[in-house]
Amino acid sequence: MSSSKPFLAAVAVILIGAAAAMAASVNFKDPKRALGREADVRVDAELSQDTVSPNSPINVTYQIENLSSTAVAVADKIFDVTFDPDARTINLSIGAEIPPGPNLPHLVTILPGQKRVLTGGALLHMVAPNLRTPWTAIPQYVQIQVTVLRDVTSFAKLIELQAKNATVPLPNDMFDRWVENSASVLLNSIPVYWKNENRAGTAESDRPASGKY
Length: 213
Hints:
Layout: H1 4-17, E1 33-38, E2 41-47, E3 51-52, E4 57-66, E5 72-74, E6 79-84, E7 89-94, E8 108-110, E9 115-123, E10 141-149, H2 156-164, H3 172-181, E11 182-186, E12 190-191, E13 193-197, E14 203-205
Parallel strand pairs: 3-13, 7-10
Antiparallel strand pairs: 1-2, 2-4, 4-9, 5-8, 5-10, 6-7, 10-11, 10-12, 13-14
């Protein structure tokens, strides 16, 4: 119980610092929207574009709703984009199942019953053949995965320090707790168009002439 006061103080600072992010919103009627739920954490996300190309940004606005009785957190500055040619799917990962370095990643806390809207993205790095065949693996979907930290009270003192100092070392024992208490929410896939430029400099796209899927 002694950790509750520093935890609440850290949360208060984080809430103030993230006020600008709250101005964003997810359009729940947008066809580029996806959702997923794991236990008592629900995530809704919306892509900023429905067309992707080599080295294009994959930007997303996402809302985390905490339906549990305890606070959760997400490392909102960590993004990773990969392409699965077999599934023809671009995978966008937000947060971290394993801390990427010796320091505590920037954390955004979501209190019980709270919704937080965040934005971010990363560049897609891939090389696609200029000549298209039925067997050419080009992206057709984007799938988003958000990893949240379920046990935030264990990190209360570190979160408080992070609010004062951007760089906070992550002790080895807390590294293990991060791995043990992280959980991922996998959202449904979102169809996208693929646009590539051939050597002549003209654009090749899988978008039908009608502009519909």
